[in-house]
Amino acid sequence: MSTNAVWVWVEQFRGRAAIPSWEALGQARRLADQLGAQAVACVFGHNVESIAQESIAYGADKVFLADDATLAEFRVEPYAALLTRLAQEHQPGIILAAATTRGRDTLGAVSADLETGLMADAIGLDLENGTLVVTRPVYAGKLIAKVICPERRPQMATLRPRAFPRPQADPARTGEIVTVPPALSEDQIASKVVDFLAEEGKVSLADASIIVSGGRGVGGPEGFKPLFELAEVLGAAVGASRAAVDAGWIPYAHQVGQTGRTVSPDLYIACGISGAIQHQAGMRTAKVIVAINKDPEAPIFKLARYGIVGDLFKVVPALTQEFKRRLGKT
Amino acid sequence: MHVVVCTKLTPDTTAKVTVDERGVVSWGDAKLVVNPWDEYAIEEAIRLKEAHGGTATVICMGPEEYKEALKESVARGCDDAVLLWDEHMAGADTLATATVLAGAVQKMGDVDVVLFGKQAIDGDTGQTAAHVARRLGWPQLTYVCKIRQIDPATRTIVVERLLEEGRQVVQARLPAVISVVKDINEPRYPSFLGIRKAAKLAIPVWTTADLGLSSPRVGAAGSGVRWPQVLPLPPRGGQCEFIEGTPEEQARLLVDKLLAEKVI
Is A179 near chain B, with CB under 8 Å? Predict the structure, then answer.
């Protein structure tokens, strides 16, 4: 028999919690309050006790903390084995995580272990008669589905980053930290992390609140330069359409759209992007979309709140100068 | 080396997908295509086979018309194809789908690598590969953008995985389940010989019983997730406001508006 407790797997990279995990914890707190139950954070890593404390500040009543060298780098086997074991012991009603690469990996494995459904990429969470109702985009964002896991427990879902508000941390909150041992020893783990090639000094697309993105209209690799300059002033990440990536103008890690990343920034500035349906699939949930394009008929303008018909090589530098002036960066 | 690639058919991206008042999703007469992400998995399966010898087998769970996806994979260079289907398998979520796919891999017995595309463009969950890895008890290497090294003799594989912060380099034991992203390769087109071979290929259909599974474990009965409601997308608010003037004037007006929106 499952409890009503709402759990969150709090993801971390090199000792820093992923922001989307706090968004998930905010939802866990809200659901737990509605259910009159506990919000529980699961923090796995090495030297990550501060993240356990932070989890309490962000709304957890209780934290399961596993601090061990085998958990230092993310690997799905030890992480999933531990989350599965804890869930079997304590029978939560709901388990949430961010719909990041690690979140989908870990919950994907755990849901198979626990023989329960996994609802991916939630943009809305509600309770109806105690059952979790997940709202999520399907068919490349063309439709919205409400999905449930009515019979099996726990109910599991991953939450699209930036679809839910980041809660306010309250350092005065108190909660219980329960230390747990890892589920696997090193010799039971079939994979080893041998290296990590970090994209140093760049804002990652996944958690960027502003994205400046370029498409075919950018014209070549050097055409991205004004976009990087605008991004620098705004603290934004740089995205790209498939056309620009396939032309070899910018690495694949920047691609937004159907065969790239799905993003939900507050502001998406599309420069020289026509807005093919494949591109829209990756960015249509942005709060405000600005389109800069020479072609007034480009489909991107149907999605945009603000449009500028013109030469991006004139408009983008003008925007950079204007933002510098207004944001006091000159 | 025996490589298995799992694929599915999805409505073409450009299809106009609609939903009626009963919640039935349709895409008119738009054709179904091989899931775009799977093209990279199919290509990688063929490359592994070419580099190391052995067989590339493509599998797919779905009704008879899904044989088209299998034929296309064979036309590109896969050797064998198996369709997994009977009426019990209908209405599956990712978990029940994984049960069938893992069952097929186990039935083959000699598989070294199972390949998936990162996700399918209809359900967009990206979690089936993880379920299958778990069902098989094999290492799960997702979001792979490069296979650096694969050694069937020492049973090891080294891959680069594309995560949010960069690329994680992981070494794992074989057999393993891998999902790939677009960066890994450039898919080839079907060859003339391949198309001829695919046209003549008799594709076996494995049923729930063939896989040694019971009907409550597959299809809707074996699923956790239900879709009680599918809705059209709420329209985006309002029309595009075009900003006129010289580039400097446009920049000033746009910055005014964006600062007022509080998105910066």
Answer: no
Domain count of the fold of chain A: 2
Residue B95 contacts A, CB cutoff 8 Å: yes
Tally A–B CB contacts below 8 A: 264
Q: Which domain holds residue A218?
A: 205-326
CA–CA distance, A143 with B174 (Å, rounded to integer): 39
Any idea what DSSP says for residue A122?
E
As beta bridge partners, residue A256 has: A261
d(CA B80, CA A275): 38
Distance CA A29, CA B263 (A): 26
Is residue B21 exposed (0-12), middle (13-18) or buried (19+ Cβ within 10 Å)? exposed
Residue B66 structure tokens: 């899904």
Please answer whether residues B164 and A74 qualify as being in contact, where contact means their C-beta atoms are separated by less than 8 angstroms.
Answer: no
**Interchain contact A132–B (C-beta under 8 A):** no
Q: How far is Cα A230 from Cα A210, in angstroms, rounded to an integer?
A: 11
Q: What is the rounded CA–CA span in Å between residue A212 and residue A233?
A: 11
Q: Do A318 and B251 touch (CB under 8 A)?
A: yes
Residue A48: name the closest of A21, A27, A87 by CA. A21
In angstroms, the separation between the Cα of residue A235 and the nearest Cα of chain B is 10
The structure tokens 């985009």 sit at A137
Predicted TM-score of the model (pTM) = 0.93
B51-82 pLDDT, tens per residue?
999 999 999 999 999 998 899 999 999 999 99
Give the CATH number for residue A139: 3.40.50.620
Whether residue A197 is contained in a domain is answered as no
ipTM of the complex: 0.94
| CA of B103 vs chain A CAs: smallest distance (Å) | 14
pLDDT of residue A330: 57
Nearest one of A79, A21, A93, A14 to A47, comparing CA atoms: A14
Domain boundaries, chain B: 2-222
Return the axis-axis angle of helices B94-108 and B128-136, rounded to nearest 10°: 50
Assess if residue A137 is contained within a domain: yes
Q: Which CATH class is domain B2-222?
A: alpha beta
How many angstroms away from the CA of A144 is the closest CA of chain B?
Answer: 5
Pairwise CA distance, residues A106 & A83, whole Å? 8
Cross-strand bridge partners of residue A239: A213
Residues B221 and B111 sit within 8 Å (Cβ to Cβ): no
The SS3 call for residue A177 is: strand
Residue A193 lies in a domain: no
For A139-188, the pLDDT digits (tens) are 888 899 999 999 999 999 999 999 999 999 999 999 999 999 999 999 99
Sign of CA dihedral A280, A285, A291, A295: positive
What amino acid occupies position B225? Answer: V
- Give the end of a domain, one of A155, A188, A221: A188
Contact list, A118 vs chain B (CB under 8 Å): 94-95, 125, 127, 131, 224-225
Q: What is the pLDDT of residues A287-330, one digit of tens each?
A: 999 999 999 999 999 999 999 999 999 999 999 999 999 998 65
E strands within A34-154? 39-45, 62-67, 94-98, 118-122, 124-128, 131-138, 143-148
Smallest CA–CA distance from B230 into chain A, residue: A145
CATH number, domain with residue A282 = 3.40.50.1220
